[in-house]
Amino acid sequence: MASTLLKHFLCLLLAAFAASLMVQASDPDILSDFIVPANSNGIDGNFFTFSGMRGVFEAPTPPNFKVTKASMAEFPALNGQSVSLAVLQYAAAGGVNPPHTHPRAAELLFVVEGSLEVGFVDTTNKLFTQTLQLGDIFVFPKGLIHFQYNVDAKQPAIAISAFGSANAGTASIPTTLFATGIDDNVLAKAFKTDVATIQKIKAGLAAKA
């Protein structure tokens, strides 16, 4: 009897631990309607309004790629709300959002102008790609490496991305690997090439920064 009770207790304990991990895997729940910054003397409707996107659709096309974010950093009212948004603009003939990940959220991408080639790689190293047209929506699963690319020679593209976190985070694969000080010898061995090639890649990234 005691052994059975102990097994039930351990099962409940494991279930509670698993549930705790699941909760911690996304933005934590808050115990209030919203979070007011500590240095605030009072808020009104302005606190819940973000005007940083005004004019974004009328702005000149970027030379390659531009992202305008409305995350917790830019829009403090999102703190605790588990949502954020970004407007992505791609130049014609090769505007690219390089391979990157969002460690804390999935991404829902909605094409509002032009078309895009998109894709992601899962944890079995399988590549999933799609050509998106105006009005299409594509989901990039949480934490997986993904990219977007505008192959149209004449038409720029714009997409809106929604995230299930107020701070999804972005880790750019080229920048993470080649612009953070990882030793050239380590990278050369990892990519089965020589140090000169690694240094050439790093110099190219530095020139575009």
TrEMBL record:
GO cellular component: apoplast
Key words, A-Z: Apoplast, Disulfide bond, Glycoprotein, Manganese, Metal-binding, Secreted, Signal
Residues annotated for oxalate binding in this entry: N97, H102, E107
Pfam families, sorted: Cupin_1 (PF00190)
Keyword set includes 4Fe-4S: no
Binding site for Mn(2+): H100, H102, E107, H146
Compartments, as annotated in UniProt: Secreted, Extracellular space, Apoplast
Molecular function, one GO term: manganese ion binding
Residue ranges constituting the Cupin type-1 domain according to the UniProt record: 54-199
Main location: secreted
Signal peptide bounds: 1-25
Family: Belongs to the germin family.
Protein task: May play a role in plant defense. Probably has no oxalate oxidase activity even if the active site is conserved.
Subunit structure: Oligomer (believed to be a pentamer but probably hexamer).
Official protein name in the record: Germin-like protein
